[in-house]
Amino acid sequence: MVLTVHIDNRILSLAAYDGEKQAIYASIGTDPLATADQLAAAMHTVLSFRGIDTDVIEGAVISSVVPSLTRTAQCAAGQLAAGKVLVVGAGMRTGLNLRVDSAGTVGSDFIATAIGALHEFAPPLIVINLAGATTFSAIDKDGVLIGRSILPGVESALEHLCQSSAQLPLVSFDSHAPLIGRGTVDAIKSGALYGAISMLDGMTARYIAELGESASVAATGEIAGVLAPLCSHTVLYRPRLLHDGLRLLYQKNR
């Protein structure tokens, strides 16, 4: 069994794969002050809670956009895995062709998500990841990652709006918000939901104009399951593309 781990500023997500099949997916809150022992204990607890015997974990692979936690997570995973613990970064064989100004600055989350998407979909391809940030990746007809866009995350932007405006109440994202809010709370929920959908529609239309009408659109991330069905374009929701890509990277580099 292979353990895949992704760390962003809000969530540490992990999945366990039995061959190509994902056995479980789970997440814990990101703690920038956590020690390797604390992370190992937290991962062990959630894996055991989901019925995974950590003794059968043969290896692990980590993607991190929080540099201060990367080494800590690697040490933590090493306490759970019997074999290699890989970190997506320089020197790893990815099989992904990049045509960007500085390949070294492309985040490991972009790389893993693109690999997961290309394993399932034929290019040209637009990959949307709705996580802590909202990201778009453009993959041309030859399967080359030619560029990307990074936008504020939907939920983090909502939190910032409420926290930075003294007269606005703190509200959570609501997938059933009315379009026209009659009160302040519903107005904020409307802006968050339909503003996000409009952003996705607009960005997707511009990417399709660049890549061509034959481009497929795949979206990943928990909130993508809410937004994808409401978009004007056909957006194929795949909740675990990043972790699927990490599994493929482990198989390529073990």
Assigned CATH class of the largest domain = Alpha Beta
CATH superfamily assignment of the largest domain? ATPase, nucleotide binding domain
Distance between the termini: 13 Å
Structural class by SSE content: alpha/beta
Q: How large is the radius of gyration?
A: 19 Å
Strand content: 15-25%
Strands of the biggest beta sheet: in what spatial order?
Answer: 6-9-8-7-10-11
Explain this structure to me?
The chain is an alpha/beta fold and 254 residues long. The chain folds into 2 domains: 2-87, 2-Layer Sandwich (Nucleotidyltransferase, domain 5); 97-244, Nucleotidyltransferase, domain 5. Helices cover 37% and strands 25% of the residues. The protein is built from 7 helices and 11 strands. The strands form 2 sheets. It has a 6-stranded mixed sheet, with helices on both faces. Strands 3-2-1-4-5 form a 5-stranded mixed sheet, with helices on both faces. β7 and β8 (133-139) form a beta hairpin. The radius of gyration is 19 Å and the shape is globular. The relative contact order is 0.16. The model has no long low-confidence stretch (mean pLDDT 91).
